[in-house]
Amino acid sequence: MKLNLNIQPLESWIDVKNQPLIISGPCSAETEEQLLTTANLLAATGKVSVLRAGIWKPRTRPGEFEGIGSIGLEWLKKAKAETGLPTAVEVANAKHVEEALAAGVDILWIGARSTVNPFTVQEIADALRGVDIPVLVKNPVNPDLQLWVGALERINGAGITKLGAIHRGFSSFEKSSFRNEPMWELAIQLKTLCPELPIINDPSHICGNRELIPYIAQKALDLDMQGLMIESHLDPSVAWTDAKQQVTPAALSELADRLTVRSPEAKNEAVTDQLAGLRAQIDKIDDLLLQKLGERMAIVGKIGEFKRDNQVTILQVNRWDAIIKKGHSFARALKLDTNFVEKFLEMVHGESIRKQTEIMNAGKVAQGIAAEAHTEVKA
Fold first, then answer.
1. Cα–Cα separations (whole angstroms), residue 166 to 86, 99, 197, 201
2. CB under 8 Å to 211, separation ≥6 — which residues?
């Protein structure tokens, strides 16, 4: 199923001559001098296409710096006049939208904490109705693709056709090296639903520290994302918010020089033919994998019937432990990543348990449905 959005191509509403496309600027506009100096340093690199700055910054807990407020919009106007760079800010309600539009901001984005709330997104969409301005929608804090899609649909439904998404990672209880887990598969799913939708990656918020930004930025480009949003400050060590994930303009320039921008399709006919041949081999193997999974689940069904008839529990922990150990050993022998193999086995095992549960409790489920129907009739 494809996502039906009426959107204009990215190159029709943003200057993409710089490759990769980079949106950059401080996490927060702190002072006029800080913003103007950073903006001019970024413009001087020749690598930045859009200047971003946080004007309103709601924090997790009160008492922290929550943005300089509306006065920062005037600083952005000065920065735009001095550098020629179009500007972008985050908006979280209708008042923000009205003030940003009045100040001549060129691009708006909706933050992750706003995307998670359909009421907030609809309020912003209503404020944008009848306005022709680019809007970027960050993924929601939690890994919910439908919330992300719903936000894009609401903004598009308000008549915004210059539309894009920002992939900034997702909150997770699992501790890792990242501030927000990339969960690339969700961004890929969104791209699959709407191939024409531009997706900008935000490595600053994914990483939470500047050391990992080059790795995430390159991976995003390799996954055919259309650009990067990277936070930059003239002196990150004294930044009022998110100091660890900001880079200096000079460091941003060096990072951009080291990135490799690849084409989604090979331009050489011989290379294209070779890729087609390799992909045909993969398709054949994928067909065999699915066929074998089907055969496996048929056997799982027989096991479920046997356990049902002989009063055996679905789960045997020792059996599952043996499967994992064998999987790790086999993965190492085949030079496969053990974490990948374990996740694959967990998915297959989960489906096996679901199928066996369905078989073993089929009678009880039917009885339950009949009992509910009987109760409704009596009522």
1. 18, 22, 10, 6
2. none
Backbone torsions φ then ψ of 22, nearest 5 degrees: -130, 125
CB 90 within 8 A of CB 110: yes
> Which residue spans within 208-263 are E strands per DSSP?
227-231
Q: Which residues of 125-160 are buried (b: 16+ CB within 10 A; e: fewer)?
A: bebbeeeeebbbbbbbbebebebbbbbbbbbbebeb
Catalogue the E-assigned strands of the chain: 22-25, 50-52, 87-90, 107-110, 135-138, 163-167, 199-201, 227-231
Bridge partners, residue 260, by sequence: none
Q: Is the pTM of this model over 0.90?
A: no
Query: Which amino acid is present at 192?
Result: T
Tens of pLDDT along the chain (379 residues) come to 788 999 999 999 998 888 899 999 999 999 999 999 999 999 999 999 999 999 997 766 777 777 899 999 999 999 999 999 999 999 999 999 999 999 999 999 999 999 999 999 999 999 999 999 999 999 999 999 999 999 999 999 999 999 999 999 999 887 789 999 999 999 999 999 999 999 999 999 999 999 999 999 999 999 999 999 999 999 999 999 999 999 999 999 999 999 999 887 767 778 778 888 888 899 999 999 999 999 999 999 999 898 888 988 887 788 888 999 999 998 999 999 999 999 999 999 999 989 999 998 885 544 454 445 445 444 4
Q: Both tokens of residue 247?
A: 């880079």
> What span, in angstroms and rounded, lies between the C-alpha atoms of 91 and 84?
22
Nearest to 251 by CA among 206, 201, 213: 213
| C-alpha to C-alpha distance for 139 and 282, rounded to whole angstroms | 31
| C-alpha closest to that of 182 among 222, 128, 133 | 222
Place of tokens 């970027």: 136
Beta carbons of 29 and 54 less than 8 angstroms apart: yes
Q: Which residues pair with 107 in a beta bridge?
A: 88
DSSP single-letter state for residue 170: B
